[in-house]
Amino acid sequence: MPTDPSAVPSEIFTGPYGFLGAIVFFLWLAARELRRARQIDVDTYKSDIASLRELIEQRDSEHKREVADLTNSVEDLKADLSGLRRENLENLDAGARREEALIREIGALRGLLAANGIDTSSVLPHPKPSTGGVPG
Amino acid sequence: MRRLAAEKLRAPALPPAVVLPLTLGFAALTLTRGTGWLFGQRPGTVSDLMLDNGVGLHVWGAVLTVGALGLFAAYAWRRHFPVWCSHAFLVAAYFGISLTTLDAAVRFGGGWEHLAAPVGGFAWHAVLSRVMRPFPRRDRSRPRAD
């Protein structure tokens, strides 16, 4: 040794104090980093939740619009269907009236032929009244 | 899985193929020095004597041994925080030893060459612990070597 060992003081705590100070510093550093990491995690979760909520609201509005469109289509189809039903009934009525007129005309012709001595059973069969389009 | 764990431990801007062998090699040297001091090696330099006069050379040996073994265990476990803790513990140990060695060199002519090992160990582990940070980065970005 370049120096006399007896000249070295017996109680030297520079190193231990430095060691303990460094440990305290690293504990403080780890605690700070932990707080920051947690804050970053919380911010990330919050932004994820916000974006998910926005996505859910967007999809919800899209679904509502689709439901409204479908409801309008159903209403239009109902209106078309009722119109077609009304038209069908009107057509049936018109057909029935025309059939009755034809039957009356045939009856008149039959009477005219019978008046002239012609047997109508061989040329004109008796018309059967229509059911008006209704089966049975 | 193992590849992901290795990614977590990768020191930024320092190639892991270089950093890991150097770190483990330095840890082996630390373990050698620590077990030597722990199991009765007599002080051979002024700084050793000053370390022995403080809390005892065997205490510093125990500190270095625990730090080196902890570093080996943490690297084997492949977890970020334990690796950082081991590096930080060795930084603190080498900081204390460097302070004593510096004191020995300045006040008692202990020789500046004895500062190389503790200051080198302090610098190496300080750089790694500074670059690693205690926890993996949350934004998955490549860490900067700042």
From TrEMBL, chain A:
The chain crosses the membrane at residues 12-31. Keywords: Coiled coil, Membrane, Transmembrane, Transmembrane helix. It comes from the Bacteria. Residues 60-87 form a coiled coil. This is DUF2746 domain-containing protein. It comes from Nocardioides oceani.
UniProtKB/TrEMBL annotation, chain B:
Keywords: Membrane, Transmembrane, Transmembrane helix. The chain crosses the membrane at residues 58-77, 89-109, 115-132. The keyword Membrane applies. This is DUF4383 domain-containing protein.
